[in-house]
Amino acid sequence: MLEKAKGAQLTLVDLHKADNLPPGLSLPDMLKSLHLIKPNGDVVKGLEANIIAWEHTRLRLLVGILRWPVISTVAHWVYNRWAIRRYEQRYHQRSANQ
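The structure assignment produced for this chain is given below.
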Protein backbone atom coordinates (compact mmCIF):
# COMPACT_ATOMS: atom_id res chain seq x y z
CA MET A 1 0.00 0.00 0.00
CA LEU A 2 2.81 2.42 0.85
CA GLU A 3 4.54 1.60 -2.45
CA LYS A 4 1.56 2.94 -4.41
CA ALA A 5 0.93 5.95 -2.15
CA LYS A 6 4.48 7.23 -1.63
CA GLY A 7 6.01 10.29 -3.24
CA ALA A 8 9.24 10.42 -5.23
CA GLN A 9 11.28 11.48 -2.19
CA LEU A 10 10.76 8.11 -0.46
CA THR A 11 12.55 4.98 -1.67
CA LEU A 12 11.48 1.54 -0.48
CA VAL A 13 14.06 -1.26 -0.41
CA ASP A 14 13.39 -5.00 -0.37
CA LEU A 15 15.78 -6.17 2.34
CA HIS A 16 15.96 -9.64 0.84
CA LYS A 17 17.48 -8.10 -2.30
CA ALA A 18 19.53 -5.34 -0.65
CA ASP A 19 23.25 -5.29 -1.42
CA ASN A 20 24.24 -3.93 1.98
CA LEU A 21 22.58 -3.15 5.28
CA PRO A 22 23.29 -0.20 7.55
CA PRO A 23 26.28 -0.80 9.85
CA GLY A 24 25.36 -2.60 13.06
CA LEU A 25 22.03 -3.96 11.78
CA SER A 26 21.43 -7.54 10.75
CA LEU A 27 18.72 -8.76 8.39
CA PRO A 28 16.66 -10.23 11.28
CA ASP A 29 16.91 -6.92 13.17
CA MET A 30 15.63 -5.03 10.15
CA LEU A 31 12.84 -7.52 9.45
CA LYS A 32 11.50 -7.26 13.00
CA SER A 33 10.53 -3.61 12.60
CA LEU A 34 10.40 -1.05 9.81
CA HIS A 35 13.63 0.94 9.54
CA LEU A 36 13.96 4.26 7.78
CA ILE A 37 17.26 5.89 6.87
CA LYS A 38 17.09 9.66 6.78
CA PRO A 39 19.11 11.67 4.24
CA ASN A 40 21.64 12.52 6.99
CA GLY A 41 22.18 8.79 7.67
CA ASP A 42 20.23 8.59 10.93
CA VAL A 43 18.24 5.37 11.31
CA VAL A 44 14.70 5.55 12.69
CA LYS A 45 12.70 2.42 13.40
CA GLY A 46 9.29 1.18 14.45
CA LEU A 47 6.22 3.34 14.56
CA GLU A 48 8.20 6.55 14.08
CA ALA A 49 9.69 5.15 10.84
CA ASN A 50 6.16 4.33 9.68
CA ILE A 51 4.91 7.80 10.52
CA ILE A 52 7.79 9.43 8.63
CA ALA A 53 7.22 7.15 5.64
CA TRP A 54 3.48 7.83 5.54
CA GLU A 55 4.19 11.57 5.75
CA HIS A 56 5.39 11.20 2.16
CA THR A 57 1.84 10.35 1.07
CA ARG A 58 -1.51 12.12 0.89
CA LEU A 59 -2.25 10.68 4.36
CA ARG A 60 0.44 12.83 6.04
CA LEU A 61 -2.06 14.89 8.03
CA LEU A 62 -3.86 11.80 9.27
CA VAL A 63 -0.75 9.92 10.46
CA GLY A 64 0.40 12.96 12.43
CA ILE A 65 -2.31 12.05 14.95
CA LEU A 66 -0.16 9.06 15.93
CA ARG A 67 2.28 11.49 17.58
CA TRP A 68 -0.31 12.93 19.97
CA PRO A 69 0.66 12.00 23.57
CA VAL A 70 -2.02 9.50 24.59
CA ILE A 71 -2.48 8.11 21.09
CA SER A 72 1.29 7.77 20.67
CA THR A 73 1.61 5.56 23.75
CA VAL A 74 -1.13 3.22 22.56
CA ALA A 75 0.05 3.30 18.93
CA HIS A 76 3.62 2.33 19.91
CA TRP A 77 2.34 -0.53 22.04
CA VAL A 78 0.07 -1.79 19.23
CA TYR A 79 2.79 -1.43 16.57
CA ASN A 80 5.39 -3.27 18.65
CA ARG A 81 3.02 -6.18 19.32
CA TRP A 82 1.99 -6.30 15.64
CA ALA A 83 5.63 -6.20 14.46
CA ILE A 84 6.67 -9.04 16.78
CA ARG A 85 3.72 -11.16 15.69
CA ARG A 86 4.33 -10.42 11.99
CA TYR A 87 8.01 -11.37 12.27
CA GLU A 88 7.25 -14.60 14.13
CA GLN A 89 4.56 -15.63 11.66
CA ARG A 90 6.59 -14.84 8.55
CA TYR A 91 10.08 -15.89 9.55
CA HIS A 92 9.97 -18.30 12.48
CA GLN A 93 7.46 -20.56 10.77
CA ARG A 94 9.54 -20.49 7.60
CA SER A 95 12.73 -21.46 9.43
CA ALA A 96 10.90 -24.15 11.39
CA ASN A 97 9.63 -25.73 8.16
CA GLN A 98 13.06 -25.78 6.50
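Interim note for the steering committee: The first helix runs from residue 2 to 5. Strands lie at 35-37, 43-45.
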